[in-house]
């Protein structure tokens, strides 16, 4: 018997097999969950569809999270196909490349809005829709964040502000939805080499620096985030909500 037998999970944020969302998908699938996927554009469909079909998923839908009508369509489809939902994985973030290399003070109004819209507001919009499908059965919502929300990480810039707002949103959403037994948590992952990470100037240095200074003296694997997500998605974490769980080889605890 799997920890998630009979559970339905929707995953936002698989770009390819290196995506953190894909590692989470593999962990949830192995535990017995049925998965639905979204992709952000036609280019991505070519990569996401074969991965999703490879683990037997039948729901694979387009969703640019800046478009309300695409979000609505995803959740209407989930309602008609599954009748409800147990788990939402939000693993989406975006900022303009220049905003991840120029000094933070140079962030444009448009760049700020875009980063916060895609990386933070999308979590609120998706959780609202998911909660309607979790009504009466409870559920678990999980998002991905990074320590650049708590401390300055050079070049992370506007994404650090987006992640700080995301973590605050986790707490407010957890408060709102707790009475419905819907839990909302974040995983603060250490650096992992993915498409999104490649957009951060100096990312390789971040990997070396983190591995050198983390108590466990190494970088993390995406699979380790997958297993932490399985914990948060399942009843193993039944009393955990509003939490930011660091899966970073302990890097965040080190002062000097
Ligand atoms: P990834 O594989 O590139 O995934 C990021 C996903 O966000 C992609 O599928 C991307 O689609 C999607 N996305 C961007 N804009 C979108 C939009 N408007 N609508 C819908 N989807 C959109 O990178 P990842 O590193 O696994 O990132 C997943 C999450 O983990 C992010 O929240 C990231 O901040 C977080 N995280 C990553 C690390 C790390 O070191 N990698 C560490 C801590 C936290 P497109 O490719 O089409 O843009």
Fold and architecture overview:
With 256 residues, the chain is α/β, with parallel strands linked by helices. It has a single domain (8-247), classed as NAD(P)-binding Rossmann-like Domain (Rossmann fold). 44% of the residues lie in helices and 15% in strands. The protein contains 8 helices and 7 strands, in the order βαβαβαβαβαβαααβ. The chain has helices at 20-30, 42-54, 68-82, 109-134, 157-177, 195-198, 203-213, 222-233, and strands at residues 8-12, 34-39, 59-62, 87-90, 139-145, 182-189, 244-247. Strands 3-2-1-4-5-6-7 form a 7-stranded parallel beta sheet, with helices on both faces. Helix 1 packs across helix 8 (222-233). The longest helix has 26 residues, at 109-134. The N and C termini lie far apart (45 Å). The structure holds NADP nicotinamide-adenine-dinucleotide phosphate. Residues 13-15, 19-21, 40-41, 44, 63-66, 91-94, 118, 144-146, 189, 191-192, 194-197 line the site of NADP nicotinamide-adenine-dinucleotide phosphate.
SSE blueprint:
Blueprint: E1 8-12, H1 20-30, E2 34-39, H2 42-54, E3 59-62, H3 68-82, E4 87-90, H4 109-134, E5 139-145, H5 157-177, E6 182-189, H6 195-198, H7 203-213, H8 222-233, E7 244-247
Parallel strand pairs: 1-2, 1-4, 2-3, 4-5, 5-6, 6-7
Helix pairs in contact: 1-8, 3-4, 4-5
């Amino acid at each position: 018997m799997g920890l998630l037998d009979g559970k339905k999970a929707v995953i936002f944020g698989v770009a390819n097999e290196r995506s953190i969302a894909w590692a989470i998908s593999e962990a949830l699938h192995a535990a017995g969950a049925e998965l639905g996927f979204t992709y952000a554009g036609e280019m991505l469909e070519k990569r996401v569809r074969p991965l999703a079909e490879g683990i037997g998923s039948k729901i694979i839908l387009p969703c640019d999270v800046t478009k309300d009508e695409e979000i609505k369509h995803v959740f209407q489809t989930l309602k008609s196909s599954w009748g409800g939902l147990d788990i939402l994985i939000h693993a989406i973030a975006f900022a303009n490349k220049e905003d991840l290399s120029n000094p933070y003070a140079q962030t444009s109004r448009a760049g700020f809005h875009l980063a916060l819209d895609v990386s933070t507001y999308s979590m609120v919009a998706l959780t609202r829709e998911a909660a309607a499908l979790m009504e009466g059965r409870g559920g678990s919502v999980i998002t991905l964040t990074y320590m650049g929300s708590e401390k300055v990480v050079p070049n992370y810039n506007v994404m650090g502000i987006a992640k700080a707002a995301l973590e605050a949103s986790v707490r407010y959403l957890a408060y709102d939805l707790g009475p419905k037994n819907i839990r909302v948590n974040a995983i603060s992952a250490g650096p992992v080499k993915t498409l999104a990470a490649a957009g951060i100037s100096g990312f390789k240095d971040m990997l070396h620096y983190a591995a050198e200074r983390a108590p466990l003296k190494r970088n993390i694997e995406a699979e380790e985030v997958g297993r932490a997500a399985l914990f948060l998605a399942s009843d193993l974490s039944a009393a955990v909500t509003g939490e930011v769980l660091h899966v970073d080889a302990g890097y965040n605890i080190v002062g000097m």
